[in-house]
Request: fold
Amino acid sequence: MLQRERSGVVILRLLMYGVEGLRIVDSSIIPVATRRNCQMIVYAIAERAADSINDAYGIH
Reply:
């Protein structure tokens, strides 16, 4: 999740730059390689996406 000027693809709410309503929820949004287990990072991204979608539609 980087700024668009730095080749980022999504904003914090996981919405893709330039495309209305499209969320990217996979490991492709990770801007740098990590030494940690990537599966745990993908789980965290999915949790953030679920929270963001719930907030966007008023689901609590």
Remarks:
- The chain has one domain: 4-56.
